[in-house]
């Protein structure tokens, strides 16, 4: 590959705009192409973010010869089709969360990436934020003792429009896949693989979950208590508690700019600023992996993504949340 990482962005929605914004602040990253379902849409996006090329179909971007890795920012149910398309075009893939709609779809993408020896990663950007690295350092130092519990929530008062993607089962709507996946993933990052999960939910009129709570035990012996909501603006903080104290990721854990450690000796706060809008760090990690010839990131390995997709399937089974893709 060239010295610069040549990115393609598939999709031109809100999350794709956030990632394109991040690429401006990512060292060695070039937006080499953007694809929309219409050429006009791609050109408008490309003009705003300085894309080298614009494509009026996703397939055209997948077939382009000057792109190293494709960021997939389309609606959830399209991830599997779009990832397969990009991989078959010889491109590495960074696929937005949720990685797929279910574990079966995730297995399909991963098998193809491994067969073709191409890079693949779930875009769980919080895994690469400085705040999480600092929390891990504090845990490893022993300052809060042996860790036993994580509590985390993520919620906001979303639209109740039944046609909006958050409420539309055809588009993978619901709180769990959009919001609950964040506390789930970070709890597993801190406490290890999930051994068991128990969930409850309130379901909306369209058949998707509008509030979900789930408690997990982890193979390392710890427990996490997590929740998500499309109706309540929650603190969105995460606290890791140990035998000697706790460390809290402040003011929305997924974009925390500081963490606070509290023990019997008192409390102290450590600043953890991030670059750009936060997505920069995962883009930098992808670039590092590509330049080092890695096919997956140790910070978000494929086997862990697969495991967590299975946990999501289990939670959905417990709360009665089904999507059209489950019937395929």
TrEMBL record:
Annotated ranges, domain GFO/IDH/MocA-like oxidoreductase: 133-247
This protein's name: Gfo/Idh/MocA family oxidoreductase
Record-annotated Gfo/Idh/MocA-like oxidoreductase N-terminal domain positions: 5-121
Source taxon at top rank: Bacteria
Record keyword Oxidoreductase present: yes
Protein family according to the UniProt entry: Belongs to the Gfo/Idh/MocA family.
Key words of the record: Oxidoreductase
Annotated TM spans: none
Organism classification: Bacteria, Pseudomonadati, Pseudomonadota, Betaproteobacteria, Burkholderiales
Signal peptide residues on this chain, from the entry's feature table: none
């Amino acid at each position: 590959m060239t010295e610069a990482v040549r990115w393609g962005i598939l999709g031109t929605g809100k999350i794709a705009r956030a990632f394109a914004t991040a690429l401006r602040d990512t060292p060695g990253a070039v937006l080499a192409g953007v694809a929309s379902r219409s050429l006009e849409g791609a050109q408008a996006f490309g003009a705003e973010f300085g894309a080298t090329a614009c494509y009026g179909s996703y397939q055209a971007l997948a077939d382009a010869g000057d792109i190293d890795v494709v960021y997939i920012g389309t609606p959830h149910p399209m991830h599997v089709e779009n990832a397969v398309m990009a991989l078959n075009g010889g491109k590495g893939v960074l696929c937005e969360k949720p990685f797929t709609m279910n574990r079966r779809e995730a297995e399909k993408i991963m098998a193809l990436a491994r067969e073709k020896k191409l890079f693949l990663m779930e875009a769980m950007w919080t895994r690469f934020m400085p705040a999480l690295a600092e929390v891990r350092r504090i845990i490893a130092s022993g300052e809060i003792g042996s860790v036993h519990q994580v509590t985390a929530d993520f919620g906001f008062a979303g639209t109740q429009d039944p046609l909006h993607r958050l409420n539309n089962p055809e588009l993978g709507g619901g709180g769990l896949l959009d919001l609950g996946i964040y506390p789930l993933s970070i709890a597993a990052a801190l406490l290890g693989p999930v051994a068991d999960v128990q969930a409850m939910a309130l379901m909306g009129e369209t058949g998707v979950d509008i509030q979900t709570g789930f408690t997990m035990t982890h193979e390392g012996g710890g427990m996490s208590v997590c929740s998500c909501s499309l109706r309540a603006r929650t603190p969105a903080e995460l606290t890791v508690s140990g035998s000697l104290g706790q460390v809290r990721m402040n003011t929305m854990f997924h974009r925390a700019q500081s963490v606070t450690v509290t023990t019997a000796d008192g409390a102290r706060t450590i600043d953890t600023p991030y670059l750009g809008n936060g997505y920069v760090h995962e883009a930098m990690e992808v670039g590092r992996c590509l330049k080092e010839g890695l096919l997956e990131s140790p910070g978000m390995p494929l086997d862990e993504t697969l495991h967590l997709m299975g946990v999501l399937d289990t939670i959905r089974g417990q709360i009665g949340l089904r999507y059209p893709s489950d019937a395929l």
